[in-house]
């Protein structure tokens, strides 16, 4: 199954985990990824985390893991998005 990590803050961290995210966190997860943690297939981020995610571009970019609004991986709907990707949705475009 797809391993999903979520970069978010506050209540969304618990929400992500409740809906099946394998990893969820804020600065702690940013630091882990910066340190080379890449045990996930899809990284979802909330818009408020994108300035921090930008710092991970060197790590995430070459692996195609950078969250992107066009790919549906930058979202405010954490619950729905995690469920979608855990349910096997690959990638979708929003018109």
Structural description of this entry:
By secondary structure, this protein is an alpha/beta fold. 36% of the residues lie in helices and 12% in strands. The protein has helices at 11-18, 27-34, 50-54, 57-60, 78-86; strands at residues 4-7, 23-25, 42-45. The chain has a three-stranded parallel sheet, with helices on both faces. Helix 1 (11-18) links the parallel strand 1 (4-7) and strand 2. The mean pLDDT is 92.
| Count of β-strands | 3
End-to-end gap: 27 Å
Q: What is the assembly state of the chains in this entry?
A: single chain
Outline:
globular
* Major beta sheet, strand line-up: 2-1-3
> What is the helix content?
25-40%
Rg, nearest Å: 12 Å
Strand content bin: 5-15%
* Broad structural category: alpha/beta
Largest sheet: 3 strands, parallel
Helix/strand order: EHEHEHHH
Low-pLDDT windows of residues: none
Average pLDDT score: 92
> Number of DSSP helices?
5
Q: What is the fold's blueprint, element by element?
A:
Blueprint: E1 4-7, H1 11-18, E2 23-25, H2 27-34, E3 42-45, H3 50-54, H4 57-60, H5 78-86
Parallel strand pairs: 1-2, 1-3
């Amino acid at each position: 199954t797809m391993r999903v990590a979520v970069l978010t803050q506050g209540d969304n961290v618990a929400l992500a985990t409740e809906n099946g995210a394998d990893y969820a966190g804020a600065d702690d997860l940013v630091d882990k990824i910066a340190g080379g943690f890449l045990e996930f297939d899809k990284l979802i981020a909330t818009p408020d985390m994108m300035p921090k995610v930008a710092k991970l571009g060197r790590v995430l970019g070459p692996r195609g893991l950078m969250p992107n609004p066009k790919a549906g991986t930058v979202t405010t709907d954490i619950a729905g998005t995690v469920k979608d990707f855990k349910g096997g949705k690959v990638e979708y475009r929003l018109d």
